[in-house]
């Protein structure tokens, strides 16, 4: 039976993959390093496809869902985040709205971020985060790459001192990830942080 164990360490998260025959450890290639990144227990001990069921819902005091428009109803001081492909071909879904409002594709590409990493813009003191969950726009993200991106997102938010983060229901549109999986993943990754998360839906 295959398991994926996500674990935080004092400097950066590590993914430990195990099966019945051997234990292999692969350190993720993160773009940032923060020695103050908090320690936390192992988050996941099951395959992502079977992890979230009705008995495993997590209560997270710094997470809320709100009906409204992400761009007009979110506090102007809060950072915004959404998911993109590595080619930054933001032609559909809410990614197209980010492209139309903020553009800067050249600036994002110049950061040379890979799958599992986070590109960002700073517009008048407001951070805009772009989680790269797949290589090309016509692909679908894996649960593992989505999780890698979330872990990196927390890392980057803490590096920049972000206290408020607003997002759509990331990954659930054209990327077709389960809303339950996305919601519980966000709550697990940001559990214990002082970052207030608001997930918007229309």
UniProtKB/TrEMBL annotation:
Residues 50-202 form the Macro domain. SUPFAM superfamilies: Macro domain-like. It comes from the Eukaryota. It is an enzyme of class 3 (hydrolase). Its EC number is 3.1.3.84. InterPro entries: ADP-ribose_metab_enzymes, Macro_dom, Macro_dom-like. It catalyses: ADP-alpha-D-ribose 1''-phosphate + H2O = ADP-D-ribose + phosphate. CDD domains: Macro_Poa1p-like. GO terms for biological process: peptidyl-glutamate ADP-deribosylation. PROSITE patterns: MACRO (PS51154). Belongs to the POA1 family. This is ADP-ribose 1''-phosphate phosphatase. It comes from Ambispora gerdemannii. PANTHER family: ADP-RIBOSE GLYCOHYDROLASE OARD1 (PTHR12521:SF0), PROTEIN C6ORF130 (PTHR12521).
């Amino acid at each position: 039976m295959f398991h994926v164990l996500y674990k935080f360490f004092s400097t950066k998260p590590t993914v430990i993959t195990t099966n019945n025959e051997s234990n292999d450890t692969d350190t993720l290639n993160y773009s940032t390093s923060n020695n103050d990144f908090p320690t936390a227990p192992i988050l996941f001990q099951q395959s992502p496809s079977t992890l979230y069921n009705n008995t495993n819902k997590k209560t997270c005091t710094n997470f809320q869902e709100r009906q409204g428009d992400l761009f007009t109803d979110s506090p102007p001081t809060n950072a915004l985040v959404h998911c993109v492909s590595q080619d930054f071909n933001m032609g559909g879904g809410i990614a197209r709205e980010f492209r139309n409002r903020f553009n800067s594709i050249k600036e994002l590409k110049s950061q040379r971020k890979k799958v599992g990493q986070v590109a960002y813009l700073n517009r008048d003191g407001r951070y805009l985060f772009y989680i790269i969950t797949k290589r090309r726009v016509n692909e679908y993200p894996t649960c593992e790459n989505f999780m890698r991106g979330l872990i990196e997102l927390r890392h980057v938010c803490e590096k920049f001192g972000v206290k408020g983060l607003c997002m759509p229901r990331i990954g659930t549109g054209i990327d077709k990830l389960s809303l339950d999986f996305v919601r519980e993943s966000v709550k697990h990754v940001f559990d214990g942080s002082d970052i207030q998360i608001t997930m918007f839906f229309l």
